[in-house]
Amino acid sequence: MHLSLRRRVVAVTLLSACLAFALLTLTPPAGAVELRFDPSHAKAPPQVASASIELLPRPTAAGNAVVRMQFADKRRNTALVIQGGLGPTPLRDDGAAPDTRAADGVYAAVVQVDAAQVNRIQQQRIERLSKYRALPVFGPQRELLRHEPPAPSRFTALEAGRASPLDKISGIPFVVDPARELLITSTLVVEDPLRTYDACSGNGTQMGAWTFGKLMTEMANEPVTGIHPADFAEWWVNQWQNDLSINGFTVPNRAIGLPRLLDNWPRLGNGKLDLARAPFRLLAIVNRQDLRGNTLYGSGDAGEARLVFGALNCKLAGPPFIPQAMPFTVIFEYGIRRNGCFAVRDWARQWRALGSLALGSPAYNTALQALTDQFTLRDADPSKLPNRSAINQVRTNEFALGNTFFETFWQLRESKLQLNKGPFAGRLMHDTVAQTPDRSLQNSPAVGDFVNQHESAILAGKHEVPLTYPGTAPFRGGHIDPGAGFIWSPPGVTNPEARHMFSLATCSGCHTGSTDTGFLHIKPRMLGAEAKLSDFLTGNNMPKNIDGVQRTFHDLLDRQARLEATAGMSCLKPIDFPIEEIFLEPLKPAFAH
Predict the structure, then answer these.
(1) Which residue range forms the structural domain that includes residue 70?
(2) φ, ψ (nearest 5 deg) of residue 95
(3) 156 lies in a domain?
(4) Which residue of 7, 82, 211, 365 lies most exposed, with the fewest beta carbons within 10 A?
């Protein structure tokens, strides 16, 4: 055979072999199990005891590094699924490469990292940490346990063929300004005349970006639901008019007090509520990025963002005398969908960028609206049909609709869009309240039994109060009316700390006895004044005597650390492995208020 022809034949043969090998390695074999993330790990990932990362001498199609982890619970699964690069990746302990020994508790996966970026971020982190003598250490539910000297990760640069041990990476809270980046109450923002409107003073822009009427209109999304925004709002309000049956419990009406709201709400010539002049005053804009999931385990949840309003009595009529800023708050709680480390980090960095702008300046308010428009406008989440709204729930807390205005009987309710094709599709309906049994069960053996049976999950912050317990008996309540407030203390509970953690996770406990809070964490305000925040949020007047135990809460400080850590993640591209997520412990799902 001629030499050139022989070379061509050899080349074709080698090319065919390479293609065949590529197909074998890239195409899953027939009957192969599809890799899927465990959804429970997104908000409650297994705790990592130790981890390391090692660059490969030669990158492969799967990635350029090997990550190894050992878990605190010494699990013996053969594999978990993590986000390692282009998609779901097996983190394995079955002896198959890259794992070296089966069932030894060391899990390994090939992942994709930007080594240069990781090294840069690590060096910056070490430099920043050197400036602080101590950083806060939090337990579940933002309880401040102590301060400890920072312990920077041991490695300074990733190297090929050398495993670099990773230490837990925590955020530095002191570089985050909560007043600009987390919980914004400045009157320069919440009374921005271009974006807010005050029904009592007439100041501002009707249907501005941060008005109650605008949010209701966008949530109703009339072009796709066919529901007029004013009808949408009034249908929701009228649910206070009559007794409701929610999960088998009767939620008593607030018919006597409802006129205090509706009489202050102007109507149009056609009789519909005038949303442009809705009697609600903006209290705060809130970044709840701390509620996000762990992108390492496939979470597409970047937390929530919220706008908080207070109801108004503009007539100041009596008797009885009703203050202009009524004790009645409405919280619009929007879900933020972002997929992967890069997208979640970008969302955190948008909030962090607000910290470089003068609070309430035109530049600041414009940048903040660019953020809020991403979740408040119609079609922000096309997956949530039929409204396509990003809203997760609307929560209300009020004294104002009671039988007598100053009675101690207050109510907390939670409303959700009906995501179905039934007669109430697209409507905002009152629903069960998160993590809270019905008040009638306060002293019942059923609650005590639930705490005892779920003690480990409650202590870990992973429990969920079910609709029914035990069996088919209704359990989760449709409203909260604790009167002067109380701590859940059911009979027969064997572990006092589990009882405390259960009570703290309920809406009623969090708003009253279990945090020593007087009903509201963000309080109604008068025109020109900022909303006052609870000690639970600010850490003021701590520690508190909670059921005989001195406890220190500082919710905002914990949120500051989480925001800084997320904004500082080393991923630059969507396929980058989120090293910082290895040790991330999201806010416990049981406490996500």
Answers:
(1) 40-112
(2) 90, -10
(3) no
(4) 7
pLDDT tens track for 362-407: 999 999 999 999 999 999 999 999 999 999 999 999 988 887 655 5
Tally of CB atoms within 10 A around 322: 20
- State the angle between helix axes of 212-220 and 229-237 in degrees (0 to 180), rounded to the nearest 10: 100
Q: Say whether both 201 and 328 belong to one domain.
A: yes
Pick from 2-11, 164-173, 503-512: least confident: 2-11
Distance CA 292, CA 586 (A): 7
Query: 314, 322 in Cβ contact below 8 A?
Result: no
Reduced DSSP (H G I as helix, E B as strand, rest coil) percent helix, strand, coil of the chain, to 5: 30, 20, 50
Phi-psi region of 238 (alpha: psi -120 to 50; beta: other; left: phi over 0): alpha
Structure confidence at residue 574 (pLDDT): 92
Q: Which residue has the tokens 């003690």?
A: 455
The confidence band for 21, taking pLDDT boundaries of 50, 70 and 90, is: very low
Query: How does pLDDT run across 164-191, given as a tens digit for each residue?
Result: 999 888 899 999 999 999 999 999 999 9
Beta strand pairing call for 244-246 and 428-431: unpaired
β strands within 383-510, DSSP E: 391-398, 411-417, 428-431
138 within some domain:
no
| Single residue among 97, 112, 127 that ends a domain in this structure | 112
Secondary element (H or E) of residue 107: strand 107-111
Please list, in sequence order, all residues whose beta carbon lies within 8 angstroms of the beta carbon of residue 378, skipping any fewer than 6 positions away.
218, 219, 221, 223, 224, 387, 388, 389
- Residue showing tokens 């806060």: 136
**Does 1 score more than 80 pLDDT?**
no
Contact predicate 85/575, CB 8 Å: yes
Token reading at 584: 């991330």
Alpha carbons 366 and 362: distance in angstroms, whole number? 6
If asked whether residues 404 and 498 sit together in one domain, one would say yes
**Other CB atoms within 10 A of residue 226 CB:** 11
pLDDT of 560 strictly over 70:
yes
Please state, for a pLDDT cut of 90, what percent of the chain lies above it: 81
How big is the chain, counted in residues? 593
> With contact defined as beta carbons under 8 Å apart, do 427 and 227 qualify?
yes
Residue that is last in its domain, among 112, 135, 170: 112
Would you state the structure tokens that stand for residue 161, as one six-digit string? 């063929």
Model-level pTM? 0.93
Find the mean pLDDT for residues 521-543: 97
Q: Which amino acid is at 251?
A: V
Rounded to the nearest angstrom, the gap between the alpha carbon of residue 582 and the centroid of all alpha carbons in its chain is 19
Q: How many domains does the chain have?
A: 2
Whether 386 and 531 map to the same domain: the answer is yes
Q: Is 27 part of any domain?
A: no
Half-sphere exposure at residue 344, Cβ-oriented, CA atoms within 13 angstroms? 35
| Span 308-322, pLDDT tens digits | 999 999 986 555 567
Note whether 54 and 196 are same-domain residues.
no
6 domain-assigned: no
**Residue 559: predicted pLDDT:** 97
